[in-house]
Amino acid sequence: MEDTEKDSQQHPDPAAEMGEDAMVSTGHYSSPLPAMTEEERQELQEELAKVEDEIQTLSQVLSAKEKQVADIKRKLGITPLNELKQNITKTWQEVTTSNAYRRTSETLSSAGLKASTAISNVSSAISKKLVDVRNAPSFKSFEEKMENLKTKMSSPAAPPSSTSDEDNNPATESLLTQPEDSPTQERPMN
Description:
Number of helices: 8
């Protein structure tokens, strides 16, 4: 019994270490399928070895081809950055020629035209309203009063030309008659 324990410690179960998939692929699986004869099993193992050899050969060929491609690219001056640029350009071309991109572009263009038209309409409406306000009698009256005040402020020596209510306003008169070089009263600072 001690021999059995020592033997199991020295030779652990290979399936536990490698995993079942690895055991099957390397031919180390300990229990054959019950419906398989020894001859069929031997054929499968030979086929497995043959396929593994082919995989090894193909890996070596692939590695050699990758080295050859790298050498040719180096000789042509093709750098990874150039390849990246070419890939991006190619991808952008594919994107811009796709149906989804064209439909999205057309939709956005149409929306832009509609927004532009709407903004133009709003701008026209606002301009028309401003013209209407400027032509309104109340604005004309205000404009005339401001012109009169401006005229009075710019020429204080000239006699007043009209006798409207603003002309008789004492505050307006004091502004118009106050000499420019007269001292102003300073307000005390708090």
